Amino acid sequence: MQFLWKYIDDLIGKGLEPWVVGELLFYTSANLVPLALPLAILVSSIMTFGNMAEHFEITAAKASGISLQRLMRPLFLIAFVISIGAFFFSNNVLPYTNLKMGSLLYDIRQQKPSLSIREGAFYNGLDGYSIKVGKKGKDGKTLYNVMIYDHTAGDGNKKVVIAESGMMQTANKDKYLVLTLNKGAVYEEQNKIKNGFDHHPLMRNSFESYKIRFDLSSFKLNRTNEDLFKGGHQMMNMKQLDASVDTFQTDLKKRLKDVNNNLKPYFFFVRDTVDVFSKVKTVKSMNVFSDSNKVYQTMAYENAMNQARSIQAYMNGTFEDLDGRYYNINKYKVEWHRKLTLSAACFILFLIGAPLGAIIRKGGMGLPLVISIIFFLIYHVTSITGEKMSKEGVITPLTGMWLSAFVLLPIGMFLIYKATHDSALFDRDAYRNFGKKILGMLGKSNVKGGQ
């Protein structure tokens, strides 16, 4: 639904076939897997172990000598297999679906809106024609008071067709629109030269029936070559991303070398100027910077200012270019790490969900779902924050993309430790008793202080 509302303006009014919209939604659904899969693992693990703890199955297992880690061992293996599958999906399937979705969405955006001629308004959707209809029949094909400006000659509004009525019909499998006009006239202004002067005689041809054929090929969905979109970072696997980053870094080193070579002459401006003055005998005996040689001072000052402005303009453009290059490199590195962080997130969220379910001892869709959403929001917010900071160069892509793992992995280890030792982490009575102990200790200290 978020995708539909985001691109609703590009889809509505294009006359798209249902299978085209279905194909677009299918490719879009693949992009939701990186969000849905970690959340699904988190919710399912909390619900599973919460349900087992609620029915005292975990307690019975521990009484039989089976530890929580041993209960989690088979699910550890399943979570690991899912994480490996998530990596292959992110590295192989997701680039393919992104390529398909990107190219299809581009073609849909480029497609013209479907043919829709309204009453009392000019319609300019047909190339080279501007059509105005006074009234349309109930069948949607019959037209009345038709006016057509023909611009196909590219010479302005010099040809106009007016008719009392007309009929629209498609031909050759909807490739052409045939408009049959009845009882009208064609007005055409012609260019002629007579006796060296331009003449524009008006030619009028009346007709009982007049047919105009319009090409509708531009209204069809034309597919663009997908190779044009393969350079996008979201359309590449890890091997292709490595090759692209290596190419960008090579170009960056070459660019920095060119900048260094271009700036060298400006750094030696003063030295070279002094060398030139020392070689000229007439200037050698002069003190260029004395008050009596203001002409030379003015020339040197203007020359220095011009070169300073040139350096400033050059460096401003260079900084913008380098910022764009660094941002592009970081963007590809971020996408490289994203292939791995999806599988890591699936496994880490399982490490959080399984012990958390054993601690809260609640199954179903109530409390487990609420807690799952809280932890998933922590994961999602830290992931988005790290990604944006990585692209802007605030932190490295390695640190930014693994920021959520650095935050959630210690939480998972802590919850496993608490669940193994039967911690009452979410027991209200435990916190109430702890509060009473604190208050009691404070009360005793106040009594001793008063004595």
Question: Could you explain the architecture of this structure?
Answer:
It is a single chain. With 451 residues, the protein is α+β, with helices and mostly antiparallel strands. The protein folds into two domains: 1-111 and 228-426, no CATH class; 122-219, no CATH class. It contains 14 helices and eight strands. The chain has helices spanning 2-6, 8-11, 18-31, 33-54, 57-63, 68-110, 238-267, 269-279, 281-284, 294-360, 367-391, 397-401, 403-420, 428-450; strands at residues 122-123, 129-136, 142-150, 159-171, 176-189, 192-194, 197-199, 202-215. The strands form two sheets. A six-stranded antiparallel β-sheet has the order 1-2-3-4-5-8, with no helix packed on it. The protein has a two-stranded antiparallel sheet with strand order 6-7. Strand 1 and strand 2 (129-136) form a beta hairpin. The longest helix is centred in the last third of the chain and has 67 residues, at 294-360. It is flat and about 110 Å long. The model is unreliable at 270-286 (pLDDT under 50).
Instruction: Say how many strands there are.
Output: 8
Give helix % range.
55-70%
Structural class: alpha+beta
Strand order in space, largest sheet: 1-2-3-4-5-8
First-to-last CA distance: 70 Å
Shape: flat
Strand fraction: 5-15%
Low-confidence stretches: 270-286
Main sheet attributes: strand count, strand direction, barrel closure: 6 strands, antiparallel
Number of helical elements: 14
Listing every helix as H and every strand as E from the N terminus to the C terminus, the arrangement reads HHHHHHEEEEEEEEHHHHHHHH
Radius of gyration: 38 Å
Mean pLDDT: 79
